[in-house]
Amino acid sequence: MRYRPAKQYGDKMDPKILADGLRQRLRKKGLVPEILKKISDPEIIESYVTCSHCGALFAGHKEINDAIAESNSVEEFLEIIFNEPKRHRHDPAML
To answer: pTM here?
Structure first.
């Protein structure tokens, strides 16, 4: 999957900045830095927007790119993705 290229100076967020921030979150949770270096920016972003149960994306590629463009921080990106009306649900008994 390809996300929009990095933006020009002065823009809010771009995929590289987002991926770096998501890596920092994973590092704080104890993931080994050497492993994080091997994971591409799109793979890091997708790991946060993919259901660990079934592998489906929580949002489409356009919505992910829009959330990157609208956000000012990693936390705001995650809020946008996870606070959108949910189109992806599982029966709680399945989880």
So the answer is: 0.74
